[in-house]
Amino acid sequence: MSTAQQLFIDIVKEANRPLGVKLKTSKTLPTKCRVVEVFPDSPAQQFGILVDDVIIKLNEQETRLLTKEGVLELLKICASKTNVSVAVVRSDPAVKTSQVTQEDKDRKKAEPNEPKQALPSATPQRPAGVTNYINGRKMTDTLILKANKNNPTGCTEKRCLGSQMFPKRRNLKEPYTKEEMKELAKDFYKQFYQSIKSENSSEHLQREAEVLKDIEEKGTYHLTFKELSFGCRTAWRNAPRCMNRIQWRKLVVFDQRDVKTAEEMYAAMVRHVRFCSNPEKPGIIRSAITVFPVTTDKEHEYRVWNSLFIRYAGYKMEDGSILGDPASVDFTSVCLELGWQPPKERTPFDVLPLVLQANGGDPELFDLDQKDVLEVHLTHPKYPEFDKLNLKWYAVPGVSNLLLEIGGLRFTAAPFSGWYLVTEIGARDLGDPQRYNMLEKMAQIMKLDTKTDQMWKDKAMVELNAAVLHSYNSKGVTLLDHHSGSESFMKFMEQEYTERGGCPADWVWIVPPMTGSATPVFHQEMLLYHLTPCFEYQEDPWIKWRQSRQPGSGTQVSMKERFKRVVRFTARLAKIMQDQMKKRRQCTILYATETGRSESYAKMLLKLFGHAFKCDLYCMESYDFDKLSHEELVLIVSSTFGSGEPPSNGEDFAKKLVNMRAPQYPTHGRISVVLTSSSKAKQKDTTEPLSAIKFAVFGLGSRAYPDTFCAFAHTVDKLFEELGAERLYNIGEGDELCGQEEAFRDWAIRCYDASCKYYNLDPNLQHDSSLQSLLEVHKWGKNKFRIRKITDTTTRDKVESLKQFHNRPNIIKMVLKDRQELQSPNSSRSTIKIVLTYSQVGLPIFFEPGDHLSIFPENSPSLVSQLLERLDLSDIGPDDPIQLEYNKGSGSGDDEWIEEKRFPHVMTLREILTRYLDITTPPSPQLLGILATQAKQQDDRIDIESLAKGEEEYEEWKYNFYPNLVEVIDWFCSLHGQVDPSMLLSQLPVLQSRYYSISSSPNYHPGEVHLTVAVVAYQVKPIPGLEVKFKNLHPTFEGPIHFGVCSNWLHKIKIGSTIPAFTRRAAAFHLPRDPRVPVIMVGPGTGIAPFRSFWQERMYQVETTRNSRMRYSKSAPVHKALSRLKKPDLPRSSSDQARPKSRRITVQTRQPADSDLQNGDEGIPLVSRHRSASDSCDHGQIIHEMLKASSEFGSMYLFFGCRQSTLDHIYKDEMAKACMFGAVEKCYVALSREPNQSKMYVQDKLKEEADTVVQLLIARGAHFYVCGDISMANDVSHTLHSILTHNAAMTDQEARSFVTGMKENGTYHEDIFGVTLRTAEVTDRFRTAARRNWQVQLSKTSVTIGEECSGEGAQTSSGPAVTLLARHDVPTQISYSLEDKTLPSGRKISQHSHSGRLVY
Asked: Is 375 labeled as catalytic in the residue annotation?
């Protein structure tokens, strides 16, 4: 027999931490490393290395071939690593009898045969292994090392108490000492902050210090609600006897630690029962726990005397028989002694009253309303005779006599409920002989021979459980069968070993009482140990109470006292129920925005939900994501940026959410495709970490982007659902083209109503004020805000002020170095190249080609001056230093004025309106509602109030006239000189930054950022009634001209001016990581901007490669020679002049599509130029070297579109140079307005080069880039689909799948910047379709508020599908007519013609 065994131990530890062993080594080889000491709390001790073990390998390196110094060096190496594999040889203790010392023998003789008390064993010194005997899988439980030494199982080496029903493991009568409570509190807070990934953070250490101080001073401490929720859920997670722990994160916690009386306890219990029964969706049982005040001493306990808060009575009859549940006989007699009056006709299923004890007082009886007790009448699908038994059972199993312990705090009243397992009712409650004992009756119904059939009990048991399962399922009541429950426990156990390294489980209780070996849990080894937080059995209080009522105790309750209790209860019940309804649940509102609209809507939600919930508002970028899993109700409002991506202040939140759902999803990938079919195959989190959260999402977008409409909101909605959160209400959508305000208000009210119903709050709680809050974010009044002059001559930095105002520390100061007009002087439009420098300011920025630059512009000085002329400036001047102040008082004599810190410092009114507030966007309904109060004329006031409702009239008015603030005041002329500037300063939205694609490479132009900017100006319809006045002055007047804020500011400011800006990473629009991959670029007009940075980056790469080859050559760097190159001649020629074996560089141009118009840019004529690389010129050698170097990189193909070659072919010369030097393989230019040529669009040019496109995409894996407006991008996508079907022999479905796969895999890139500003050809048809969709949505949502209520299985609805017309569609195909819309005064606000025309 072998006397030793070889073991392999994998140790996981912190880096730079020693193993913790002392070795005895040999001086000669081979070395024998024997463990002579294992240090306490070391990794070696935790993972089971013992004294006398011989280490033969460390990390696969044999120790016997090393010297003593070599072993020490190997131990140092192992100390630095986080994973160490150890192979040891261990002597078999079974055969080492000869090593027993005399001292051991003497000690054994001195021990008594049976100890008086089995002392708790110490914390296990080594991990333990468990085996699944179905698949042979073995797992090591390391969590057992954290088992609570103060809460042992009660088992010893000589006895096992695992099968005891109520094992007494420790004395719960004695409270913890301060030192014991401190240790338990430390352990709890370690667990809590580990769960939010903040262990040892300053917040953790500060909170722990506060708790320890409270324990030292008071002997106790107070848990926050989040800490309490975490403790309750973890206690369920740690419960070794519970099978359905996989739902632990979804436990709803009701905090009732502030109750004082038994009546208040009863009201809380009623609320608990109603919530779990789910009256809105009867039968969909919800798990919950209600926590009453913590116990400080035995004299002031709060207790629920019932073992289950819903249980049937058991009456002992005169003949000795029992009517009802035999398990309830004793407690039923207690209830009768307390004065309970059972029904006159007693039945086997009479619900017992609640017996509640508050603050150590006398117990009080409370009957549950029968309508609050959800019961299921039992029937059998095959045996009609079973129905005559008149059996029934309740739906909510509520355990109410357990003690909850969290961090050393004991809650003696913490009723908890989940849902039933079928065998709990069928096999135990109805089948057990000591319970209802229905097996024999079931056998009689089945006509089984109970004398000769040895299996009759098994057959009857199966059918009894089948009846229970059938009855609950047919009534739609939640019930888990034992097979599904076993499988879910196996899944939970696997998750726990993955997350925590172990799972405490009591095999005796986990294995179902029926067909145990047919379930997987029967064949799984389990380890029983106890962790904290936890639930504990405690002595029933009525036992001691009964003893105290023995004759001579003098504690019996008189009839008079009973009557007084009933009177007190009746008098206070109504008030208590109302107070309980007002218990505030936590609601967290998150928003992400680029323009500020989502933030304003989120603030409306804050006020609306604040009527019934305790609300917090966060921008996603400032929210602590690690706390998300501990939230209760989360509302999200967000817009979408670009191709379905999050706004910049929501990027980090989105990445963390995606990483939580799919840890292996690349962080640089597109978030908008994380939920697609192929990405679902990635490793996915299956633990449902957000299962405790209820949520709802509202998305803002534009149906001009049909493929990405509210895409980010939908992504968040799906991610929350897949991470286990419960959707409280369906996702809402707001279309900026039409009806966004109305859609949001409708969604918000319904979501509020559904939330109140879910949490059993009064849905009409302050409902009128709740609705009104949607129309006023900050109630303004002259007694609420004021402007005060300040004597301040301090000059402050503009950029630093913007950093504080926008809370963006990444804003930097750039300087306008150069500005160049890119279009011809003969063009009616303007496109400019902006050159900014940043290296001189001492703060470098980092960006890549394809990224964006966001610029903070200023409003037009003339527009600001016009607005100032129309305000009430009787008290201040436009250039006086001022401070905005807010009145904290009620405005009726108790004024308390404080600084309203909206602006970072004192500044002038002109400065605020110029740099910080948006005065060009049409006012919101909320702002119009405030303006209505300042109008002098009744007609103006009525009209403004009509618009302020935010309904169809507002949408018509806003779209047709798109008035800025100056024009609004001119429209309603009685506002002249009446508008209070403090109202504007407190209510106007923020002037947002504008994003531009960066047009330069940081390597090619170090220290500079180039932008390509279309200068925007457009004409709108004149104000009704004023057009005649203007036509008299200007006969050609057709309406005022509006100017783009940022583009015109950049067009007019002086060279050398400061430009505040920051970069925004566009990870989904970068060049391929492998520079050898080919690239196809499609960008008409200003859509060429990012592609200019692409080819410049490739020029830099080619030049770098060429210079490295010519390191010892005297050739000049190529970029210095580029400027000296002769401008290439581009004559019209179709002949091929290239010499044999020489490389041709081709530049072709033709007419672009109307899609080019969306960018505000025009085209160039067809040009074809073939230049041989061997042409003789001054720089022929440089060209030859560059072409040779470019062969190491993937080819670039550019498809560019404009109108005319002589007007708007921007960057024409740069394109030619890029082609000449090999950075761009070919350049195809399409012209849409070239004289004497047919129209040609970029999508047409793609069709012409279809074979090349197919070869690049399929054979060479090229990346496809599109930059431009949504209409052009859609046309290009359709064109690519057509090319694949016609030129790649794909079916329609295969082509769609191919394009979709490119988008998912990150090889199809889009940078979409929107519809051209308000042109009839595009904007009208998008908005017409949007209005049609909005009308359909409104007609479908005319049901009563609260009629819809989401729950499990709720599906996301995005409204009816609306097909938007593509560019080639005819606008008249939309059959939609509108009547003229007017305001109450008769002013027309609708226009049948388009609303404006593009000027330039």
From this structure: no
